[in-house]
Amino acid sequence: MRKKIDHIGIAVRDLENSISIYKNVLGGTLIDRYRSDAIGVESEIAIMDVNGDRIELLSPTNNTTSPIARFIKQKGKGVHHIAYQVENLDEAIIELEEQGIRILADSLRTNKHGRRLIYLNPADTEGTIIEYCDYPNKGL
């Protein structure tokens, strides 16, 4: 199945400062900013466009339960995940299972932009957090 990079997720402590860096240093544009209190997300998210590439700046909103807070405590701020857009998420999940790659089933969700997503188990990806996503109403 064809895949392409959709976005890179960056864990940050100071969302305002990070937005400023992406705007003023990298020439990016703030596309959207929102807060998600959903279990397993619990973050404020700023979506930046830098010359056609998407970056998600992720700042934890709950330092006890947010996976972003946990990531920062364990690894520090920086690249959190790489998201790959696939043609069909359901078919991609079957393909992963056939390849022996586990998914984190509880991470399956649709975000406010209509993007369906799921995370692969980092234990099967050499520690890299990989997201697969699709846009059912758009296409690859």
Automatic annotation (TrEMBL):
Taxonomy-wise, where does this protein's organism fall, top ranks first?
A: Bacteria, Bacillati, Bacillota, Bacilli, Bacillales
**Similarity-based family:** Belongs to the methylmalonyl-CoA epimerase family.
Q: Which InterPro entries match?
A: Glyas_Bleomycin-R_OHBP_Dase, MeMalonyl-CoA_epimerase, MMCE/EMCE_epimerase, VOC_core
Q: What keywords does the record list, in alphabetical order?
A: Metal-binding
Q: What is this protein called?
A: VOC family protein
Q: Which organism is it from?
A: Metabacillus rhizolycopersici
PANTHER family according to UniProt: METHYLMALONYL-COA EPIMERASE, METHYLMALONYL-COA EPIMERASE, MITOCHONDRIAL
Superkingdom, taxonomy of origin: Bacteria
According to the entry, every stretch annotated as the VOC domain falls at 4-135
